[in-house]
Amino acid sequence: MSDHDAGRRPGFAAERRERILRLLRANGSMSLRELASAVHASEVTVRRDLRALAADGLLDRRHGGAMLPGGLTREAPYREKTGVATAEKAAIAEYAAGLVEDGDAIVLGGGTTTHELARRLTGRRDLTVVTNSLLVAEALADAPGAEVVMTGGALRGPIRALVGGAAERSLAGTHVRRAFVSGNGVSAARGLSTPNMAVAGVDRAMAEAAAEVIALADHTKVGADTMFQTVPPDRVSLLVTDAAAPPAELAALRAAGVRVHVVTP
Amino acid sequence: MSDHDAGRRPGFAAERRERILRLLRANGSMSLRELASAVHASEVTVRRDLRALAADGLLDRRHGGAMLPGGLTREAPYREKTGVATAEKAAIAEYAAGLVEDGDAIVLGGGTTTHELARRLTGRRDLTVVTNSLLVAEALADAPGAEVVMTGGALRGPIRALVGGAAERSLAGTHVRRAFVSGNGVSAARGLSTPNMAVAGVDRAMAEAAAEVIALADHTKVGADTMFQTVPPDRVSLLVTDAAAPPAELAALRAAGVRVHVVTP
DNA sequence: GACCCGGCGATCGAATATGGTCGGTTCCGA
DNA sequence: TCGGAACCGACCATATTCGATCGCCGGGTC
After folding, report:
1. Fewer beta carbons within 10 Å, N or C terminal of chain B?
2. Within a domain: residue B143?
3. What is the domain range of residue B149?
4. What sequence ranges are listed for the domain HTH deoR-type (chains A, B) (predicted)?
5. Three-state SS letters, chain B
6. Are both B109 and B18 inside the same structural domain?
7. Which chain B residues are closer than 8 Å to A155 by Cβ?
8. Looking at beta carbons, which residues of chain A come within 8 Å of B32?
């Protein structure tokens, strides 16, 4: 049932409000701008929708966006001043979302950037997403066109991701076109890396399971090198980063055979 | 437009309305234009159909289309604030939490009651919890004394649980002392049951993985019998329910060898 | 064969939704 | 504390949808 553009259905008002609620429940809170772009409506219209929904007590309006009512459940301020490089991550995720087509089967790793990416895939049709991240799974749980498969494994609380032998084994049997992974550092010398051994194992397994590995890394990670190497440079087919990344490192990465796409927030 | 004659003559109209209902149930909501094109009728005709169906309470009309009744308010079944038997579920979870000791390894199934139970285990020490529920995992993610292991599997969105062959296989290798499962019905005749086949498979695997199966079921489920049997009565070692459960059924369960504990909210 | 009747589609005024813009307010960083 | 940027509510023009009326078609009846 994929007419044209994903999610660009002619849908009507009540359905749009339903989608807004779903998006909010998946993400805890969202800015007005995010919502408007997600449901393909103007900010004025979304503002009206939020007003109506808030009148019914279905959400809480805040300056600049909305969040779940009574929700101490998840304190995720939509304007995350605590998060570093939020705008950059969003822009990177936005571009990465454009790489995903209806009917794709992809692997999504853990991390805030991949979470952002997942949130942008709710409108896709006939999508299969393999992930070890609770955040990714939750973001896509209500997406009608997405089949979400989780790896098993031990839960690593702080990052809400599954790791360990079980996670790696469950990935061993799968093969997909593309894996989107994040990691804590990416350099021309050692490729993707992460400071945690268990996480590294899963990231390696994810890279193994995919024909193409696409690295999502904001500028704070480019040139960084942490303890465990996960994906060597020649296995990274594309790096998506933002304009603040050190040009020298990007050049070195290109020289190492990595395609690099730079987005501007 | 006489409603009586509609049943006598299986004309095109009745069939078209059936199809409209089917489409709506499949998609949740559809715009008038989509429906008209789907059933190959004019928008005016579909509008008439919608009016008639809405009069019977079979759907909710909205400007621009229609959706399933109740749509906006009971969107997220698991986050139900006004859910049924909330106090009872809490009391059941409270008692069940008392059955869990430091150092235990347990299996927690999906459902709101097990979610409540998980939330009461955050203070335990040296606990290992195997679960297929995203809600349980999330509830224990920040608990310092709990090691959470998730089964893999396909995500079943509405209940936030992992199901399917992968989930069952990952449970095959585990063995724990106790499994806490909920299900949609429990009766002396057929034990625990659930209306979904995939969920049933996982519940069975969970029961297999545990030495003891403890069923958590509020009174609305006692005596209920849904399509797929998951755990036979003689494998349920303890049923925790609330005081509003039908006494006859509880007696029958006891006669079947099930220990029954009744909590008062 | 003429008539009636239920269902369907087309059309038009009315109601509603949408998006752009303007002025006042709130928020954030300096 | 202050200035700028972002956000909000309100107004208006436009686009879309709704409800009602009408005419057409096919089948059944007298």
Report:
1. N
2. yes
3. 79-263
4. 13-68
5. CCHHHHHHCCCHHHHHHHHHHHHHHHHCEEEHHHHHHHHCCCHHHHHHHHHHHHHCCCCEEECCEEECCCCCCCCCHHHCCCCCCHHHHHHHHHHHHHCCCCCCEEEECCCHHHHHHHHCCCCCCCEEEEECEHHHHHHHCCCCCEEEEECCEEEEHHHCEEECHHHHHHHHCCCEEEEEECCCEEECCCEEEECCHHHHHHHHHHHHHEEEEEEECCCCCECCCCCEEEECHHHEEEEEEECCCCHHHHHHHHHCCCEEEEECC
6. no
7. 137, 140-141, 147-150
8. 12
